[in-house]
Amino acid sequence: AVPTTPAAPAAGAPAWPRADAAATAARQRATVSGARQDKDRWAAPVAREALARVTTAPIGTATHRFLGMSIPVAGKTGTAENPGKEPHSWFAGFAPADNPQIAFAVVVENAGEGSTVAAPMARQVVEAYFGLPLTPLPPEALPTPTPQP
């Protein structure tokens, strides 16, 4: 199949792909594919480094949650808006950052920001996986009991 859009005729392209268009598109995909592989060679290490800095750089959003950790963790904090309620907290990552053995995601509904709630829990996931003592959760990461009627 050859991708086409409603705007194709405006650009002078046929509205309906033909066999010759399919052959041309296949050659173009091969060229794009090669370019994509070149980009991936540098993009993946850059992304890994950026994710590692989330837990290690002075301005990393989760640095304070992973201080003193013997296993380097790479990840991303997140806060999903939840209109009228507390936001959903999440942290997704992998460890060790330099030789991943575990990938994980922690999502806590109606709990607050990712660096406040999910990141400390993610630290415990990594600690448990590698058989390390669990770091106590900070008070702000502890679940709040749901009011009962």
Count the helices. How many?
3
Low-pLDDT stretches: none
If you compute it from the alpha carbons, what radius of gyration comes out, rounded to the nearest whole angstrom? 23 Å
Category from helices, strands and their pairing: alpha+beta
Largest sheet: 3 strands, antiparallel
Strand content: 5-15%
Helix content: 25-40%
* Average pLDDT level: 83
User: Which descriptor suits the 3D outline?
Assistant: globular
Strand tally: 3
* Widest sheet, order of strands: 1-2-3
Distance between the termini: 58 Å
Helix-strand string? HHEEEH
Question: Which descriptors apply to this entry?
Answer:
3-stranded antiparallel beta sheet; 3 strands; alpha+beta; single chain; 3 helices; 149 residues; globular
Summed up:
The chain contains three helices and three strands; from the N terminus they run H-H-E-E-E-H.
List the helices and strands and how they pair.
Layout: H1 19-56, H2 63-66, E1 74-80, E2 88-95, E3 102-108, H3 114-129
Antiparallel strand pairs: 1-2, 2-3
Describe this structure in words.
By secondary structure, this protein is of the alpha+beta class. It has a domain at about 50-140. About 40% of the residues lie in helices and about 15% in strands. It contains three helices and three strands. It has a three-stranded antiparallel β-sheet with strand order 1-2-3. The model has no long low-confidence stretch (mean pLDDT about 85).
